[in-house]
Amino acid sequence: MLDKKISEAKRATQFIFLVCGLALSSWAPMVPLAKDRLHLNEAELGFLLLLLGGGALVMMPLSGFFISKKGTRKVILTSVLSAALLLPFLLIVSDTYLMGIVLFAFGCCIGTIDVAMNSHGVQVQNAFGRPIMSSLHGLFSVGGLLGAMGLGFLIKFGLNPIYAAITISALLIGLLVFQFRHLLNYTEEKEIIQKFSHVDEAQVVTSRFQWLNGTVFLLGFMCFIVFLSEGAMLDWSAIFLRDNKGVESEFSGIGYAAFSVAMAVMRLTGDSLISKLNSKIVVIGGSVLAALGVLILIFSPWLALSLAGFVLLGVGAANIVPVFFSEGGKIPGLSPTVTIPVISTMGYAGQLAGPALLGFIAHHFSLMVAFESIALLFIIVAVIYKFRK
After folding, report:
1. For residue 185, is it within any domain?
2. CATH number at residue 218
3. How far apart are CA 236 and CA 119, in angstroms?
4. What is the DSSP code string of 246-297?
5. Span 308-362, pLDDT tens digits
6. Is 202 within the bounds of a domain?
7. CA-CA distances (angstroms) from residue 383 to 288, 322, 376?
8. Of 159, 19, 114, whose CA–CA distance to 346 is shortest?
9. 222 domain residue, yes or no
10. What total of structural domains would you count in the chain?
């Protein structure tokens, strides 16, 4: 396949990661508004967040089926358009049950985009011949910054909230249309799989239960924890800053923005960083740094220092997952086409469903205790990775 085509596909994939981050993080400044509009307590809000994650988890395994039949490009097209159309409704629905339905559908779209863009990114990386996954996830974080701050600024400077949401939706559709033709089509993806697969299928366990492997689940569990922290920042950071630090609702997304900036910078440089450092330094050191960041943002009496905690969390967590993905693709006797989807699904389960657990912890204890549990989970990741075989 021509180098120009692969370069164009790489750029198009970067834009899709940007679109996904933008779509998902636009929900962050809407959370406090939805909580107030629907008169929800923390447990009720947690249940709604669970519906969002549930929609994603329902669609993730189905997405793999659709991708195998239609290719990632068509799946990306359908899911991005659907997410863009649903986004404004998250800001105007005033019935709790209808809001649950809309959030579930929106989660379905986000889950589908996640699976499709990562599948597409793996194929492009194989054809490109160099690591690109960290930088792709860096563009997702850039989208997180734009979504978290963009919607809030549009509303703050006088634009009607519904028109602000429609503006974000139009941007999502515009970016998709701009890059759609450069995404790999179904035939091109099949050619890459055949040419660049490093697995001898005759030596791979043929059982459909080959994903039932301890190493796969261990990597998936650690991915769950790291992605849970991202989901917590998306769904709870705005409320934490508003209710615990006195930040205005319009700017309550600033914590997630600081986290996203740090994630973006570290991931955009992460491909070279991972290649230079030992994986244990990236994972163990990053986990400890992330835990420290969470404790700082919780206990600091100053907003500026709390924002520094968000930054430390982003710096520490940024490149842990790419290490897990790389190891998941090298498990002896198991095909990466089986292991990577399992690890990805477990990871994104943490991002999209895990924060609902924080809602229940916050309801029965406090939001500070819920955030403290995140720090503890990062320490668990460091210990597991330190002593794993």
Report:
1. yes
2. 1.20.1250.20
3. 29
4. ---GGGTTHHHHHHHHHHHHHHHTHHHHHHHS-HHIIIIIHHHHHHHHHHHH
5. 999 999 999 988 988 887 777 667 766 555 677 788 788 877 876 677 788 888 8
6. no
7. 10, 18, 11
8. 114
9. yes
10. 1
